[in-house]
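Give me the fold.
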Amino acid sequence: MAGFNAFGSQFYRGDGGSPETFDLVGEATDISGPEMSRDTIEVTSHDSPDAFREWVGGLKDGGEVTFTVRYDPDLHNPLQDDFDDEQTRNYQIRLPDVPGGIWNFSAFITNMGLSFPMEDAMGADFTFKISGKPTFEEVS
């Protein structure tokens, strides 16, 4: 059977200490990413077989992570502080026990959107631009 239930995934924020401690940023309703990509470099020449373009892989981009929450100022204002900071911070996405694992990445916040609907809970969306390579740590 393929597929896993994402319920129970959690988002953590590093404190920058040594050793670093990560604190849960609660009330997540959606976590997406990392959304990685790779540039392409065209290497086509007059000698390319059958007049087809040829490509090689270029630089990779760690992409972005989006994080949506039921907004609570006490829980989420530290992320507003991160938005104001130009430096990257370490974050984690911890998956549920099955399949288990942790996505680790360094990022800064590029977008913070708050919503206050009349007939729904307050919400916030955060977009994190990853700097460097995101890594996956298997946890058993």
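The chain is about 10% helix and 45% strand.
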